[in-house]
Design goal:
120 residues; alpha/beta; 4 strands; 4-stranded parallel beta sheet
């Protein structure tokens, strides 16, 4: 199947499959049902996100540090789990960012896709 990414505020679609919210902060106005599952371990740390949002680090620095955070045991376990699920069903990773080009969900999708290729 596939792994895709989406903003949590976009309307749900039957094509979303398993919806996985990956934030540290619960999005305002979003019900638990709409989010699907919630995996905080795949969110950037609060300190990292704050440094990026405050302009203390560049997108490039943020991306490197986020990918480094995803090498920890808990995120790796979740990445492998979602990669396994994505082989048989569609999985949509979500967060609140408007611009996917500078959002951890794009990086996460790419990491999960790479993990899918390892066992292909």
């Amino acid at each position: 199947m596939s792994i895709q990414s989406k903003n949590i505020y976009e309307p749900p679609s039957p094509d979303d499959g398993l919806r996985v919210l990956t934030t540290n902060y619960w999005p305002r106005g979003i019900s638990k049902e709409r989010a699907g599952s919630y995996v905080r371990a795949l969110a950037p740390s609060r300190d990292l996100l704050r440094a990026f949002k405050d302009g203390q680090i560049s997108w490039e620095q943020y991306a490197v540090q986020y990918l480094d955070e995803m090498r920890a045991e808990k995120p790796q376990s979740e990445i492998k789990r979602l990669a396994d699920l994505s082989r048989n069903e569609t999985v949509t990773v979500m967060c609140m960012c408007k611009d996917e080009a500078q959002c951890h969900r794009r990086l996460l999708r790419e990491v999960i896709e790479a993990q899918m290729a390892v066992k292909a």
